[in-house]
Design brief:
23 helices, Arc Repressor Mutant, subunit A, Serine Threonine Protein Phosphatase 5, Tetratricopeptide repeat, rod-shaped, about 525 residues, mainly alpha
Length: about 525
């Protein structure tokens, strides 16, 4: 019952938060689509305000990318190409850092469009190829198709810029072949289909197929219906171009006037430039060269402005590329230096470990040599003298022993008691102490210490650790299966309360840590097999 109550309470806490996040995401996407499809064409000021608010409200990386993309498109429509590129680059960088291939493709595609409009075709092509590469990696198949269509449309503009409309037609035909969206309720689907028809119409116009161009343009408008989108004025302009090609200025005038609402109070420089060019053609056809020239000058002014912006951006890109190269060169030098330091450090460590291993090997062999001449104590035998203590220490201990006055009878009795304790291996008891040993011998600590100093040539604590180490070495020699036990277990077997104390004592006595001793002993046993 308590578990059920806990689960219910958890759900009450978690579900509102999840639901709240879901609602926020849906509301965000709704506003994003509204700006992207409608507001961009009808109310640029409101679209910019909403885009700014979306960026501030963005909670996820993807929402931030969407917000930057909206702002990039807004700035592009306003003719502020520098700001457009900055926003698009931020979106692109964020997509790359988060490995969001869908948005990498979209942001690279937008940058390609922007640079193409500025006449920086090589830069545009580079981003277009990056868009294609990222698009191949994304897993969302529907979005992959949409992006593939957009990439094909951008290649269309590259071909159109070279006046190669046969090649341009091939790209829009490829796009048409992959359009698989049947829903007429999806605004994106409708927009893509209508755009493809409009681009095909441009090809037919320049290839002289005016009837096909008319049919495609009308089909494009029919698909859009009452939808507010900035694609419509571009369709009207091409309709005007078709009418002018038919020498029908009245119809051309009618279609050009339909564009006026999209230009009034809005900063849409590309549309304005293209419309001015068409007006120039119109006035040339009706015999008003002065007005034709006036519109041509207006179109060229916008074009010249784009050229200047392109030059500024180009210079900026070169400067940025130079500074980026310097940054990367510095990072490269630092990276190489760091790698060299790591390599040198690794070599030094490897060399040190090799020397240490050789040193341990020598000590192990020396230890074996000592064992062959003076066996290590085991469970049945006690070392009476340790070869590990210097003569100087032996003399010092004997001198200390001389300072104690004790009768021969008492000394013999205490020594016999000590031998009894030694045979029982009192040193393997983790709780043993000089006081406990003295009690078992029936004397005090001073006399017990005296017996050890005189007959074992060492102090109590050195004797204790030495015998424990000798004991465990002896056990390992008799039972090699102990080599597979953990060192902590071996330490406990010979009376040490901690592994660190055992390791220190082992190294002090043998000259090598217990792990090295175990390693070399195993190697010896393997070589004997």
């Amino acid at each position: 019952m308590k578990k059920l109550l806990f689960i219910c309470l958890s759900l009450l806490i978690i579900l509102p938060e999840i639901y709240g996040q879901s609602v926020q995401e849906k509301e965000f996407d709704k506003r994003y689509i509204e700006v992207n499809v409608s507001l961009l064409a009808t109310n640029v000021v409101e679209a910019e305000r909403v885009a700014d608010s979306l960026l501030r409200a963005a909670q996820t990386d993807e929402q931030k990318i969407k917000s930057y993309m909206l702002l990039a498109k807004l700035y592009e429509n306003k003719g502020d190409m520098s700001s457009s590129i900055k926003c698009a680059v931020k979106a692109n960088s964020l997509a790359e850092m988060t490995l969001n291939y869908s948005w990498q493709a979209s942001t690279s595609g937008l940058l390609s469009t922007t640079f193409r409009r500025l006449g920086l075709m090589k830069v545009s092509e580079r981003y277009l190829k990056e868009a294609a590469e990222a698009n191949e990696k994304q897993k969302d198949k529907e979005r992959q198709i949409l992006t593939k269509i957009n990439i094909a449309h951008e290649w269309f503009f590259h071909a159109a810029a070279e006046n190669d409309y046969q090649k341009a037609k091939k790209y829009v035909s490829e796009a048409a072949s992959v359009i698989r969206i049947e829903s007429d309720d999806d605004k994106r689907a409708v927009l893509i289909k209508a755009t493809n028809d409009q681009l095909r119409a441009i090809c037919e116009l320049h290839l002289g197929n005016l009837d096909a161009a008319d049919t495609l343009l009308q089909a494009s408008l029919n698909k859009l219906g009452n939808m507010d989108t900035n694609l419509k004025p571009y369709i009207f302009r091409i309709m005007a171009e078709v009418a002018l090609a038919r020498k029908n200025p009245a119809k051309a005038y009618e279609k050009l006037k339909l564009i006026d609402p999209y230009l009034e109070g809005k900063n849409v420089e590309e549309l304005e430039m293209l419309t001015n060019q068409t007006w120039s053609t119109y006035y040339t056809l009706i015999g008003e060269p002065s007005r034709a020239n006036d519109y041509l000058v207006r179109a060229n002014n916008i074009k010249d402005k784009d050229v200047k912006i392109a030059q500024q951006i180009s210079d900026s890109l070169l400067e940025e590329a130079g500074s980026t190269r310097e940054v990367y060169y510095s990072r490269y030098i630092m990276a190489v230096g760091g790698i060299l330091l790591v390599i040198l450090f690794s070599i030094a460590i490897a060399g040190y470990l090799l020397l240490l291993k050789r040193s341990y090997k020598k000590r192990y062999l020396k230890l074996k040599e000592l064992e062959s001449t003076e066996p290590v104590v085991d469970t049945d035998q006690i070392i009476t003298e340790s070869a590990l203590f210097s003569v100087k220490k032996e003399q010092d201990l004997k001198k200390e022993a001389k300072d104690i006055n004790i009768s021969k009878e008492t000394e013999d009795r205490l020594y016999a008691n000590f031998l009894r304790e030694e045979m029982e291996q009192f040193y393997l008891d983790k709780t043993t102490s000089l006081n406990k040993l003295a009690g078992n011998m029936g004397t005090n600590q001073r006399y017990a210490s005296y017996i050890i100093q005189k007959y074992r040539n060492t102090d109590f604590y050195t004797y204790l650790q030495s015998n424990r180490i000798n004991y465990i070495i002896g056990r390992i020699k008799k039972d090699p299966t102990l080599l597979d036990f953990k060192l902590a277990h071996l330490a406990e077997m010979c009376g040490f309360a901690s592994l660190s104390t055992f390791s220190t004592a082992f190294k002090n006595q043998t000259g090598l840590p217990p792990s090295a001793f175990v390693h070399f002993t195993k190697k010896d046993l393997e070589s004997q097999l």
